[in-house]
């Protein structure tokens, strides 16, 4: 009888506590927005449908950024005035002050509409281009980099959609929700702005899954781009890349073209551009493709006066990765390092904003010496540290990190 009485008392107390919690939740302002209501959404739409017209490629492209929110989570977006963006219109208050645009986002969201020019030249060629048959550009250029003022505990979700001519297709580094419609997720950003390379138009695309990475190689049809050769080389090198960089992206996009594009290569988040005329392996044993893969794998960059760290490390590891993947023999690897050393002997100072040619070759020798000084295990440990997100890498920070890994002074890093 006592146990029965105690049982009923416990049930009554638990019921009473639940009722108090329910009443408090209904009265508390902090619970006015549930967990689902703490999310605001960006829907970005870019209209390429006029690009097939004769003069359409020179026009700026209409972009619509629509914000949806059930409470006033996103309050303001601000971005620098830039000549590539024009004709801004928005719901709510939009104004220019101190060289910036400021958009006061309405409480329940609204639309921002503008025009973007994607043709960017490098001398007589382009590193971003829109033609009547295809387009090749960085997704970063679609939306200006903006500072946001938001409620502290809120989060964003973004989708990107392209409106294309009937014969066009699209490829990005993001998963496709539906045709030409992509989901963008970057937990580190309050505004999930799209990044990485994009290619649109009449395309030929080769795909494969390599070492847990979904790889796509794309180029406009009719251009001399060896998609299958690129995919084949990635097939035997990406597994080694992932050994060195376990956090390498699980999706990789390689875009290419030849028609009036800049004759080089450029990396981006989860993607890279490689001109169709670039050899996969040069006569000196280096590989532009692997060089850019290292840049894709690295999640932080060097300081402005230490570009030799970015470029020298990428060039040295490209040789290491090619050698360890079986692409070049140990003898060719040694010969390639000797050639780099001879080329860089004339360079007295590495510190600069842009490391090229002989300066990068000298930096290759620095990292080769550092590899020998640390030993393979410690050097790999250092590379893992450098690949993590963190502050930009200066020569002093490189030395500090190397000495921490080695637990002793390091001689091979220049002052």
UniProtKB/TrEMBL annotation:
SUPFAM superfamilies according to UniProt: Metalloproteases ('zincins'), catalytic domain
Keyword annotations: Signal
Domain of life: Bacteria
Keyword Signal found: yes
Keyword check for Signal: yes
Signal sequence extent: 1-23
Protein name from the UniProt record: Uncharacterized protein
Species of origin: Arenicella xantha
């Amino acid at each position: 009888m006592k146990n029965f009485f105690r049982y009923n008392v416990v049930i009554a107390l638990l019921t009473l506590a639940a009722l108090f919690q329910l009443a408090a939740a209904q009265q508390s302002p902090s619970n006015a927005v549930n967990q689902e209501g703490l999310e605001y959404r960006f829907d970005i739409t870019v209209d390429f449908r006029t690009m097939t017209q004769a003069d359409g490629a020179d026009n700026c492209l209409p972009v619509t950024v629509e914000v949806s929110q059930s409470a006033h989570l996103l309050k303001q977006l601000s971005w620098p005035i830039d000549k590539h963006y024009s004709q801004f219109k928005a719901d709510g208050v939009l104004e220019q002050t101190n060289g910036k645009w400021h958009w006061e986002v309405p409480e329940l969201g609204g639309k921002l509409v503008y025009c973007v020019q994607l043709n960017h030249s490098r001398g007589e060629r382009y590193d971003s281009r829109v033609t009547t048959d295809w387009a090749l550009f960085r997704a970063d250029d679609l939306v200006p980099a903006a500072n946001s003022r938001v409620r502290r505990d809120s989060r964003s979700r973004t989708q990107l959609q392209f409106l294309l001519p009937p014969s066009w297709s699209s490829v990005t580094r993001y998963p496709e929700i539906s045709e030409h419609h992509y989901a963008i997720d970057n937990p580190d950003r309050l505004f999930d702005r799209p990044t990485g390379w994009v290619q649109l138009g009449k395309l030929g695309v080769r795909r494969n899954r390599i070492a847990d990475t979904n790889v796509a190689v794309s180029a406009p049809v009719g251009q001399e781009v060896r998609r299958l050769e690129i995919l084949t080389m990635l097939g035997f090198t990406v597994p080694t890349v992932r050994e060195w960089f376990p956090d390498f992206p699980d999706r990789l996009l390689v875009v290419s073209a030849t028609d009036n594009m800049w004759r080089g290569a450029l990396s981006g988040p989860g993607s890279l551009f490689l001109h169709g005329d670039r050899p996969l392996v040069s006569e000196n044993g280096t590989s532009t493709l692997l060089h850019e893969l290292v840049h894709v794998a690295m999640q932080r960059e060097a300081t402005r006066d230490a570009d030799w760290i970015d470029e020298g490390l990428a060039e040295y590891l490209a040789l290491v990765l090619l050698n360890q993947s079986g692409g070049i023999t140990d003898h060719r690897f040694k010969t390639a390092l000797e050639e780099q050393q001879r080329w860089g002997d004339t360079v007295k100072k590495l510190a600069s904003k842009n490391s090229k040619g002989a300066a990068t070759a000298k930096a290759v020798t620095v990292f080769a010496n550092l590899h020998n000084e640390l030993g393979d295990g410690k050097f790999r440990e250092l590379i893992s540290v450098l690949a993590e997100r963190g502050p930009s890498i200066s020569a002093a920070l490189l030395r500090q990190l190397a000495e921490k890994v080695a637990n002793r002074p390091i001689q091979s890093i220049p002052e």
